[in-house]
Amino acid sequence: MRWITARRRRPFFGYAAVLLALVAVGMLYAAVTGLGGSTASAGSGSSSAQITEGKNLFAVSCATCHGEYAQGSSVAPSLIGAGAAAVDFQVGTGRMPLKETNAEAPRKTPVFNQQQIYAIAAYVASLGGGPAIPSDQQVSAAGADTALGQSLFNANCAQCHNYSGAGDALTYGKYAPPLTQATNRQIYEAMLTGPEAMPVFNDTTLTPVDKRDIIAYVTQTRAEANPGGFSLGRVGPTTEGLVAWLGGIGALVLAAMWITAKRREDHTGEITGNR
Amino acid sequence: MSDNDRDLENTPEERHAPHRVIGTPPPAHGLLTEAGPGERAGRGGTEPHSPGEAEGPETPELHELPTDPPDLKAAKSWERVAAALFLISALASAGFVAAYVGLEIGNKNGNVVDATLRSNLGLGSAMALAFLAIGVGMVIWVRYIMPPVELTEERHPMASNPEDRSAFAQTLIEGAETSQITKRPLLRRTLIAATVPVALAPLVILRDMGPLPGTSLRHTVWKKGMRLLVYASNQPITAADFDSAGGMITVVPEGYQDNDEQLAKATAIIIKMEPGQLQAPTNLNWTVDNIVAYSKICTHVGCPAALYEQTTQHILCPCHQSTFDASRGATVLFGPAPRPLPQLPITTNAQGYLVAQSDFHEPVGPSFWERG
Fold first, then answer.
1. Which of A147, A186, A222, B224 could in theory staple to A182 by disulfide, Cβ–Cβ 3.0 to 4.6 A?
2. A201 in contact with B at a CB cutoff of 8 Å?
């Protein structure tokens, strides 16, 4: 350890330590995040008992903002015509009920179980219209055309969600969330209903077949291995190059400084200054 | 003739024992012994041997540089470290060969992509270690084993001395006179007449670098009645299909859906608004049922501007954050874009499909020199 203590007073030692710490933290972060899980759930049917249950749940947990009759308020939109798919997405991803009003509602653990979500969805659907929750078959990526899905994704989704589905920032604190945790059904519902700032891609514009292709691209892309072992957040096509520039070149500069640094007096003693 | 000057400038000492640079051969012993012992001690290393102390008559111990590092013990241990690094490098090189032989890519049973990744990882790490170990070993060698000494290489003026220059000028003038070029203007002028066209003739070949752009930057392939296709799925789209407010989709002109060169200019996005959201300066005659079409090519440097926020009706460009207000003719709200995104005039045809009324009425994309 003596070689460390001997050098820690060098002017660049602080920078080197900070750089090392940043790289270490970044790698740790990359290792911890990017682990996604996915759960599938059974379909839903709606009965009057279910609608009643949903109405009660709505009155307890949603009516404060969305109004007693889901008519909306100054802080929340009307849910009349929002449809069951919107409810399944918003409540199923834990975005609703909202914990606090922010620019973006973050994904969190759902408050309700799937049966309760279906009940609320059935109630909201009973208020009139809106897209229904897609069936398991509709959202299955089996046999879909991944290549076409990529073309559609690149033209209509990648500008916000990043070409690999890693998500990215929008304006004023809003952001397009990463697609690492979204289930097939949630991806479909998001396209169908356009939650928050996201545009709507209805079934007559992007057909259900197109949507399955997009789902296939998203799920296949995120399942791919990371060459080199680290995802680096998959934030862009040049992530590795960026890391090489910021980390690698910085390290090279420090190494060059060390190689050419003058040796200390006590090292060289009487030898220096003999000219 | 030029040496006289030099001799005046240089001291005898410098003439006989010029400054040494690492890598150059040491000065001849004869020259050194000419100099006095005091001089040598001043310029030499740590061991100022006087001629009398020299062991052999043929090889006197005359070192300009120190032979040993100050701390021999430390140097010995660093020597072991550097040697170990060189051995590691040799092993890594062997590992490179082993990785090349051992990690096969063309294995039929395995995944070719994974096999390639493994092979690249093996080859890359082995080679990186081989080079890195040599480099680190060399640095350790230089810093801890070689005796520390600073050498200065002095610069000398690069210009020739005045005599050389005036001699050259004289030769040139005399040569010109002898060649008769100053006395025979006919020859001189006809030679110029011959050489200038030869030099200029190749400029004509530049014409082969391609046709001039002409007016191609000013218009796209959109024409009256051309249907809008959803990009990639190539489906024509009716106003009734595109009926969800907040909807956005990338569209391309029918017949050019696979023509990347044309799509680079012609690609557009259509947006469905809530009733009443579309306002001037949007040209409402160019919209259908609250559907508006804008060029997808940013007017800044031509990135695909399509981050549409349905809550704010803002279109963002991902490259430089130019922000356009889609509900107000895509006017620029923020960012470096100089102009709104051009609006594509659209209508519906007899079957209800969305079609273009005409081409864009202004050039799409970034500014260009003659745009005006």
1. A186
2. yes
Tell me the backbone φ, ψ of residue B173, rounded to 5 degrees. -65, -45
For B81-108, letters b (16+ CB in 10 Å) and e give ebeebbebbeebbebbeebeeebeeeee
- pTM listed for this prediction: 0.64
- Chain B closest-CA separation from residue A49 CA (Å): 31
Q: Where are the domains of chain A?
A: 42-132
| pLDDT per residue of chain A (275 residues) written in tens, 0 to 9 | 556 556 666 667 778 778 888 888 777 776 555 433 333 333 345 678 888 898 889 988 888 889 888 888 888 888 888 889 999 999 999 888 888 888 888 888 888 988 899 999 989 888 887 888 998 888 888 888 999 999 999 999 998 998 888 888 888 888 999 998 899 999 999 999 989 889 999 888 899 999 999 999 999 988 887 766 677 777 666 677 788 888 889 999 998 888 877 765 544 444 444 43
Q: Is the complex ipTM higher than 0.85? A: no
Contacts of A195 in chain B (CB under 8 A): none
In chain B, residues with a C-beta closer than 8 Å to the C-beta of A197 are 309-312
Residue type, B81: V
**Residue carrying structure tokens 């990526």:** A141
First to last CA, chain A: 35
Write down the CATH number for the domain with range A42-132: 1.10.760.10
